[in-house]
Structure of Enoyl-CoA hydratase:
Amino acid sequence: MSTTDTEEPLVLVEPHGDVVVLRLNRPAKMNALSLALEQHLLDAVRSDVVSAARAIVFAGSARAFSAGTDTH
């Protein structure tokens, strides 16, 4: 889930006790799934924090969960 210092993370991992929220974070693109976002999401799901959770909630930032696949 690495990014450069100037980039926002593509997936935000928000632990809340036994529940973890994975928030897609490409609001300018309505959280459309790019290859990079898909990889970051897989990395997040495989992380220790998420593995220890009893429940995972998938959410989108801003006004949309996801616009679908980003073809650009």
